[in-house]
Design brief:
By secondary structure, this protein is mostly helical. The protein has a domain at 2-79: Winged helix-like DNA-binding domain superfamily/Winged helix DNA-binding domain (Arc Repressor Mutant, subunit A), CATH 1.10.10. The chain is built from 5 helices and 3 strands, in the order ααβααββα. The protein has helices spanning 2-16, 19-28, 35-39, 46-58, 80-107; strands at residues 33-34, 62-67, 70-75. The chain has a 3-stranded antiparallel beta sheet. Helix 2 crosses helix 4. The radius of gyration is 21 Å and the shape is elongated. The relative contact order is 0.12.
Length: 120
């Protein structure tokens, strides 16, 4: 079960790591789009756009509906929930560290919860 979860997260973050795919997802936020519509803003072929879409499909972020010769892509935003939950778990650590940094900056004195450097 844990490995399956790790594989899904890997696929999700791999899909989101590419700027072209993130922009494709953003354009799907309003309505389904064809592969041609998704490819149009980029200087890429339909084959290259289709490869990007396949990565998004493997991550569960997009589904494709075929109507004749037209492939309509639909955003599946619920796939982002698992990634958000993973990030939210680590946000508590960031928050604690940022709060400690803020305290140091506000007082100008070192925080006892932060390691300090030995001046020697």
């Amino acid at each position: 079960m844990v490995e399956q979860n790790a594989d899904r997260l890997d696929a999700l973050f791999h899909a989101l790591a590419d700027g072209t795919r993130r922009r494709m997802l953003r354009s799907l936020g309003g309505q389904p789009r064809s592969v041609g519509e998704l490819a149009a803003p980029f200087r890429i072929s339909l084959a290259a756009a289709s490869k990007h879409i396949k990565v998004l499909e493997r991550a569960g972020l997009v589904t494709r509906q075929i109507r004749g010769r037209t492939h309509l892509c639909h955003l599946q935003p619920q796939a982002l929930a698992e990634g958000e939950a993973w990030l939210r778990h680590y946000a508590q650590f960031w928050t604690v560290r940022l709060d400690a940094l803020d305290a140091v900056l506000q007082t100008g004195a070192p925080s006892p919860s932060l390691p300090t450097e030995d001046p020697s």
